[in-house]
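ARCHIVE CARD
Drawer: 12
Card no.: 0347
Subject: one protein chain, sequence and derived structure
Cross-reference: see card 0346
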Amino acid sequence: MKKKNQLSPMMRQYLEMKEQYKDAILLFRLGDFYEMFFDDAVKASDFLNLTLTGRDCGLEERAPMCGVPYHAVDGYIKKLIDGGFKVAICEQLNTPEDTKGQLDRDVVRVITAGTVVEDSLLPEKQNNYLASLFLTDKGFGLAWADMSTGEFDLFEKNTVNPSVIDDFLVTISPCQIITNTEGSKLNLSGVAAGKLPRPETYFDWAYLFDNAEKKLLEQLNVATLASFECADKKLAVSAGGALIEYMLQTGKRSLSHIDKVQFVKDNSFMLLDGNTRRNLELTSTLRDGKRTGSLLWLLDKTVTAMGARLMKGWIEKPLQNERDINRRLDAVETFTRNRETLCDFREALCGIRDIERLSARLAYGNTNPRDVLSLSETLKRLPDVKKTAKSLKNKIFDEIAGKITLNDALQKEIEAAIDPDAGAVYKDGGFIKKGYNAELDEYRDAGRQGHVWLANLEANEKEKTGIKNLKVGYNKVFGYYIEVSKSQLDMVPLRYTRKQTLVGGERFITDELRDIENKIIGAEDNAVRLELALFKTLTDKLRAHIDEFLETGRAVATLDAIQSLAYVAVNRNYTKPVVNGKIRKISIKNGRHPIVEALSESAFVPNDTVLDEDENRCMVITGPNMAGKSTYMRQVALITLMAHVGSFVPADAAEISLTDRIFTRVGASDDITLGQSTFMVEMVEVATILNNATPKSLLILDEIGRGTSTIDGLSIAWAVMEDISRRIGAKTLFATHFHELSELEGQLAGVKNYQILIKEIGDEIVFLHKIVRGGASKSFGIEVAELAGIPKNVVERAKIIMRQLEEININRDTNSIMISGKGGKTRQMSLFDGRDDKADEIMNILKDVNIETTSPVQAFAILMDLKEKASK
């Protein structure tokens, strides 16, 4: 343990700061570097691949130390944040020129994954949500905010079901979660699967309703939460108040851009679990996790970063309200009918910067001259955006465009003030335009004149002294000087005062040079000081308009997302779906898979779909692998989801019933992290569907039961189908290799058989990718194996074995669970149908066994006896 009384003053100061931020990497500003010491240095040097050195600190051993330059710190902070670290920034609060002795320092900010606001540390096209979970025995409250845009939302639900909480969090996709003590005990599957960050336990006092409500009222500057429709939502308010407390504690500055909160009503959007998001490839592909090939990649043709973030949110949270869906569809339709205006609008959006994040940095005090120039460029482009939107003469567009505030005077002031070549770094000045401020121009002129004085001084001194290699120079430590080489020191006049000794010479100063130095440095310092003051005045003026900037940004984002959907609809020949509460079916005419069609060079084969609440509730689809079963089912799910997003769909016509959930069970994978086999993962996913689906849900089930033995798998698939048909009543697409399931048509209400057409040409097959009524007569497994490149000898051997098995009839007519009865009617097969005398004997033995009193050894002996009898 370090003894503080032995430490140097600077190191004592460091340890006092570190004591307050034990869970963070402390970046301690020393001059032009941020240094890390002791354990932080050891961890950071290893993680960031920095050289670990040491520093004398007053102890016997040197303190481990590593550091990074202040101008490059953002890149290192990003790496630390991405690696799961918190970072505390400790700044110097004064300068050596202003203070004698130890400089004052303090932590000005704690940066975590959810509190980042810098552009360089954030993904441009997705939100950066920080979530707060409040869990009680009655239900949960949830709050989430994006500090970089000012978005702030609340939600609550009277359930403690972990799967519901997990699905909701996965839908929001926060990069950081804080929670109360009770919430930290929750076992979230999304965390184990790597879809969610592990929640961090925060102070329980922050979640107390009275404390949380007070914090929210202060932040929103209101006397009641009634206007935000959450005054009586105690769980949501508790989560929201704690979230504000956390953001203020870590940020240590104003959150003035967060002055509104939206209460999200239950069932306002379609909840999508992690499996559905992954299987439908909404934002990234299954194969490599990339954006290209996802639904987001297809639909996101936005021009602005704000629009791109909103589009991602629309896809991840499809609407549930009929009015909202059709309002969005109508807006998209308006653009599709005005294609020239659509092109003009996309052009008008070019040059619009990220107003939302610019506003957040304004509120946070992180604005630089380049940001202000971006804001000016945006203000200049807004009139064209608003004019083009209003030219559509549509009520929806008039309403949205009405939220765009134009401010020509502010734009012109920025243009007059900031040099167009200004950069992001502004502490040294040089970014205010000449002519903006007369006093600043005078200081600059003095500084420029000083360089002329120095040149004249150097020329005069060379002539007076005869020292031809004499030169006038400057550095930050010693200021201005006259440098003379060692070989000519004997020519230095007495009026020269020695200032610094070098290896190759000496540096001097004269009274005249000192006067010039005072004038130059004074003018330069005054110029920088005045520039920073002018910039602060300008940003303060901009800060007063943050609310209108944010509202304008959200309106532009909405218009951008709408035009993106219209642009895709026009270029992909999509149609407007009919969506309303009266429709009880999903009816699609010549539907196409949107992603496969976009990526395919050949024409896509369209297919029809009819799913209703009566005779066509469930489609049992058979056919070989590669025929297109999975593509077809995903196609139906994606068209349904796109309609709820408010997008046109790839079909000739579509009627889509309001759907509360889309569930998918597709593919097979082990979950090594949870110690679960392929079959266990499959069964967990099926259980989730059976426990949460409703009659308004759409179920996509692919190859249920294939992860175990044939008879077990068939039995499970059969039972699942029965439960869906008889109890749940959801619209279902069920693909299977178990041809026995085709017998369910006529036995279970609403079940219809379909198959993917295959054309046989000799020993070869051709996939037609067309779905038709009826069950497939065979699996074509060997033919598919041949297409996949299985060696010829293996394929031929497989055909021989198949013929032998068919001759033997290995299943002995018991492979059908539904068997014929009298009069041709079918009935459920009994385990002991068709038994003979041997079977009767075995039955009698089993009846006589007393399970309660039979030991394991006796049971084994009985089993051996039965096996022997059965083998005779």
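Annotation on reverse: Confidence is low (pLDDT under 50) at residues 669-675, 810-835. The chain has 29 helices and 28 strands.
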